[in-house]
């Protein structure tokens, strides 16, 4: 097989880039290790920044998002038994975020790829990029007993944190920065009316909690748990009881509970790999960087990578201009690190750290008190939460 751009990974990053390039007449093949059902079964992000929503529209995939997604102009931070609202709209100069599930947007991207007869190969085993520093790179994968080779100009590593692409960069070139937090998030999806029309991020001495949603009939809740906890340790009853304990009493009292339809634990991690380009391999999204979900930045960091790569590839194929490709890594990383900083800050502000000392907790109190006493601080939070410009 032969293509211009071979994309490893059929998550949101890979599908979005493939769709955008196809619309500009640039040929791509997407290789995905899992089945489509598996990819669509993963419950992940719920909050999309303005820039991500714009990319969905540019990819001609925004119709259902615009119809079914909810525009959110603010969220709450619950602490010390009270709720303070962050007015995103007011403090970001009129911007907002869209609540629309990653599952739904991935489905929209798959549908668009199908409509355009884009090539997405599922269940591709042993995917491996080769000759990445040559002018003729290629990717191989196995389907049953057959090894298939795809020759291409460029390889995009959009295969998430556990993918193969990043590992193809030699150890003496790749620099990895990592911070692992001593807890995870236990998430529950339930077909119940959300407790609040806007998200509630809760700081509590028993641990962080988050009330989010997918629609007005589908709730998504999270609680901070120790890394040693297993999903099986948490019955639905135990989850609801603990969630309520961490919320202001009046919020807990009006919480509607029900059977969980999905329950999983995600560890929290901050991670950046540099550079994001090696020869003709370009990393994008979770393959290159991970944030703890506290600031809702994961998918949104991927969005800027895709935006830069898309424009760089179009400049290359349509005008022979390689400046975008040359500058990709530095440009992408500049924004990536700002999302890292913000996600780390939100995480430090709102979680209970097992090894914290009295002094640390006083600083958390003071950070929150400062936030809600300073318009400048709220402006900074809002600017980051709705997404810094690409
Ligand atoms: P993905 O989604 O991991 O997709 C990578 C794809 O590559 C495939 N793959 C391979 N394919 C071929 N060969 C291989 N060797 C391969 N290895 C892997 C995988 O099967 C997969 O399909 O990466 P991508 O596309 O970069 O997208 C990133 C996002 O998924 C991620 O950043 C977000 O989900 C993070 N995140 C959130 N981000 C937000 O912007 N807002 C949120 O509200 C938000 N909430 C969250 C989140 C992540 C969470 N978890 C579980 C980590 C909430 C949670 C709980
Ligand atoms: C979610 O709805 O899954 C969600 C929302 C906001 C976050 C993280 C996750 O910060």
What are its keywords?
28% strand; D-Amino Acid Oxidase, Chain A, domain 2; binds 8-demethyl-8-dimethylamino-flavin-adenine-dinucleotide; 2 domains; alpha+beta; 390 residues; binds P-hydroxybenzoic acid; 12 helices; six-stranded mixed beta sheet; FAD/NAD(P)-binding domain; 20 strands
CATH fold descriptor of the largest domain: FAD/NAD(P)-binding domain
Q: How many individual helices?
A: 12
- Please tell me the overall pLDDT: 97
- Annotated CATH architecture of the largest domain: 3-Layer(bba) Sandwich
Name the helicity range.
25-40%
How many independent structural domains? 2
Give a quick account of the main beta sheet: strands, pairing sense, barrel closure.
Answer: 8 strands, mixed
Going by helix content, strand content and strand pairing, the class is alpha+beta
* Spatial sequence of strands, sheet with the most strands: 6-5-14-15-16-13-17-20
Question: Compounds present?
Answer: 8-demethyl-8-dimethylamino-flavin-adenine-dinucleotide, P-hydroxybenzoic acid
As a percent range, the share of strand residues is 25-35%
Give the full name of the CATH homologous superfamily of the largest domain.
FAD/NAD(P)-binding domain
């Amino acid at each position: 097989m032969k293509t211009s751009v071979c994309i490893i990974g059929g998550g949101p990053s890979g599908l979005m880039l493939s769709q955008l390039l196809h619309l500009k007449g640039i040929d791509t093949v997407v290789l995905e290790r899992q089945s489509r059902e598996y990819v669509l079964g993963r419950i992940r992000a719920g909050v999309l920044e303005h820039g991500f929503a714009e990319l969905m529209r540019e990819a001609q995939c925004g119709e259902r998002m615009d119809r079914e997604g909810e525009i959110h102009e603010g969220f709450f931070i619950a602490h010390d038994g009270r709720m303070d609202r962050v007015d995103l709209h007011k403090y970001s100069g009129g911007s907002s975020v869209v609540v629309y599930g990653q599952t739904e947007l991935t489905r929209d991207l798959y549908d668009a790829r199908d409509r355009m007869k884009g090539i997405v190969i599922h269940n591709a085993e042993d995917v491996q990029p080769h000759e990445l520093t040559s002018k003729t790179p290629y990717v191989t994968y196995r389907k049953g007993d057959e090894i298939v080779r795809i020759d291409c100009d460029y390889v995009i590593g959009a295969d998430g944190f556990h993918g193969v692409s990043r590992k193809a960069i030699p150890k003496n070139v790749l620099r990895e920065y990592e911070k692992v937090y001593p807890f995870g998030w236990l998430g529950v999806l339930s077909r119940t009316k959300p407790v609040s029309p806007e998200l509630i991020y809760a700081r509590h001495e028993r641990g962080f909690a988050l009330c989010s949603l997918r629609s007005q009939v589908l709730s998504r809740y999270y609680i901070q748990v120790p890394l040693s906890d297993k999903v099986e340790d948490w019955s639905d009853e135990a989850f609801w009881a603990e969630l309520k304990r961490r919320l202001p009493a009046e919020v807990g009292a009006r919480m509607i509970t029900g059977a969980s339809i999905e329950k999983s634990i995600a560890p929290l991690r901050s991670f950046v790999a540099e550079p994001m380009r090696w020869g003709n391999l370009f990393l994008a999204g979770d393959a290159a960087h991970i944030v703890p979900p506290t600031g809702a930045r994961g998918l949104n960091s991927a969005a800027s990578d895709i935006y830069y790569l898309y424009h760089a590839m179009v400049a290359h194929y349509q005008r022979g201009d390689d400046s975008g490709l040359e500058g990709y890594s530095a440009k992408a990383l500049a924004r990536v690190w700002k999302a890292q900083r913000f996600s780390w800050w939100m995480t430090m502000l709102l979680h209970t750290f097992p090894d914290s000392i009295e002094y640390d907790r006083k600083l958390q109190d003071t950070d929150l008190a400062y936030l809600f006493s300073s318009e400048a601080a709220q402006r900074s939070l809002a600017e980051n939460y709705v997404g810094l410009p690409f």
